[in-house]
Amino acid sequence: MKTLIVYCSSHGTTEKAVRLLSEWLEGEVLAVDLKRDKILFDVNEFDFVVVGGSIHAGNIQGKVKQFIGKHYDVLMTKKVALFLCCWHDGQTAIEQFNDAFPEELRDFSVANGIFGGEFLVSKMNFLERQIVKKVSNITTDTSNLDTTAIMTFVMKINDTFALV
Fold it and tell me: For residue 81, what are the domain limits?
């Protein structure tokens, strides 16, 4: 099985999650940061497509939404999984996830994951640090990245490989 992971990472948290996904997923995996990497692949070449990003300034990155919009018809013919890194948990995280991905794609996907998040204050610009301090009262690097949620997500995907 060939798996494509496409994602955006603003400060590195989503990239950490993708490294774990790449390590734990069975088969051949190609991870592409939509913000940094050139898109030199054909989505049709992959059996499985994982799409993810993080909440930054209240929304998932625009490049993730653009990728979904551009490849929506192809995604709806593939095995798909969706994930989001976000600081919040519970209902707020679910709402952010639902806002990030189209309903039909969420319902169609094999696995949906919410992986927690981080405030990497050391990687933020001045304005970002001020906003995070005001909104969340966080002034140092802080993490609630949920490796158990990532592993559960991977197990759902790997289980679909066994069915092929």
Answer: 2-158
